[in-house]
What we know:
mainly alpha, transmembrane, transmembrane helix, GPCR_2_secretin-like
Amino acid sequence: MHTWIKILSFILLCLVYYWIGYELERSQFWLLFFSYTLAFGLSFYLYRSGIRLSYMILLSFLLKFIFLFSIPELSQDFYRFIWDGMLNNQGINPYLHLPKELMESHTIEKEDFQRLLYDRMGELNASNYSTYPPIAQMVYTLSYAIGQSNLLLNIIVLRLFNIAAEIGIVLFGLKLLAHLKLPKSQILFFILNPLVILESTFNLHFEVVMLFFLALSFYYLYTSKVYLSALGLAGAIASKMLPLMFLPLLFPYFNKKLKVFNREQILNYLKYIAILVICLIITYSFFWTPEILSKSFKTLSLYFTSFEFNASIYYALRGIGYWWTGYNQIEIIGTSLTIVTLLMILFLCFIHKRIDLQKLMNYMLFAATAYYLLSTTVHPWYLMLPLFLSLFTTYKYMLIWSWLVFLSYSGYKIHGVEENHLLITIEYVVVIGVMFLEFRKRDKVNYLEV
């Protein structure tokens, strides 16, 4: 009887994903959230059903292949990915030209496919310079070189890259879990998670490639191959820039003595940083011109001072700012919260003289959590980073957040974006409440060490 329930649960899960991938529209929020919640429930049942881990890993990848021929519906970003790949293939630097400017000039041919990409990437993408780092650009370039003006073929190539990255995450993630003496089944919290399946495989967001390099970096770090670890971290940063926030946390990890700021610690840390910087210089050299810094900084600064979506603490402070001054204080609040995040990371860096890999994983999870709780913009796929880091800890609050973050899709209407602040409030009240209860269970002395 139990075997048939497992089989029926997997078939139902396949049908749910098919429905989301091929039938559902983003504006049908309640149908989307119900389907997403059902997928979560079925995935959790299968996780707890006693199926062998190797079979569960295989089933998780079979679920991903359901989306192979689907056109992403929940995000427009993939049109910009293909656009950047197209520019690279034409010898045009995507860091230097706005899509809007290119379409208004005669720099590129305005064929049907180019117009399709431009029209569907959205106003936000069309009016900002590309900030996708070099490894992402190389993948987009290869995708377009293969797919050319065939939209579906471009999508399939990008999808296969993401699936290959997840295979790498599984291979190195299992080794890390074994080293940390954590259950290997925790890898399923990531690869079987509906957030990862939908935002990575379906919507084609590049976070999993970054996380593959991050897993590679962690693996070589614990095997004491620190130079290869630096190479892996450089690959992660050259895929998505977020892992830059973890650089200060590596400083106490390199301390093998009781005295802080000892010569060996400083030299090893500087060697690590030097290798990382050299690798980043090499990857960016393929796209480098003096204008890149100013134009990339202009777009990145908007993330902290202009963009708003699914925020928590920022929205509360924004409300106070409106009450106090009568207008949106995002530039001041966004910059201030960024500084607070940096101070919190530095606090984690110096709270202990030396840390092991387990503490490093915990600190990275806390840093990423703080970053997103204080951020002005938290799209669902952003949470793949802290969700991945949570695999290598005993903390489970990211599972709840990876479910409730889909409430943010209530903001997408047929025309434009209008957020439902009640649902966002529910999301963060529950998540912060779960975090508080989970931290409260820890011994106060080991609060930042377990």
